[in-house]
UniProtKB/TrEMBL annotation:
It comes from the Bacteria. Pfam families: DUF1802. This is DUF1802 family protein.
Amino acid sequence: MVYCQVMNELVGLKEWDVQCGLLTRGETSLLIRKGGIHERHGEFEVEHRRFVLYPTYVHQNPEELRAEFAPLLRTDPAPGRVRPPALAEVVAVHRVTDLAAAQRLEPLQALTAQAMARKFAYKNRPWVHALVLRIWPLREPPTLTETAQMLGCVSWVPLGELKVDVGAPAVSDADLTARAAEVQRLLEG
């Protein structure tokens, strides 16, 4: 089955290219977020429930990726341009205020436990968000020219009106439900 989405005033969530690739391929459905230096309200908020993944290459660090994912790092193939690979929908949001609970999620996503600890402690605000995402890979990712509004250390960027064509979800509903349940189980300890 092929889906077609037309979305007005679409936004992008900036995330490391490696993470975007893993989500788009269905290798993971979990994203650990803290936010950028210049967030609109001073900290990351889940402002949008549906958005495209906006791959970034700045600040990617092989030491913060689990060993099996570090080789996936690459340099920006087209500086000044961005190709959102997928449409994402937030299925579950967990604000995790216990570091040990956050680190139990390590096997379900790409970051190391040490990277999660660094995010957790960032700005002396002890928490992270764990987002479970449904991902629809884009059949033909658009190529967008980065504008001044898209630059900087912020999570959410306006992309304007875009039409995106998506195929089947990267993960079946049953598998996504199981992944979300596993996140909940690990957080509960």
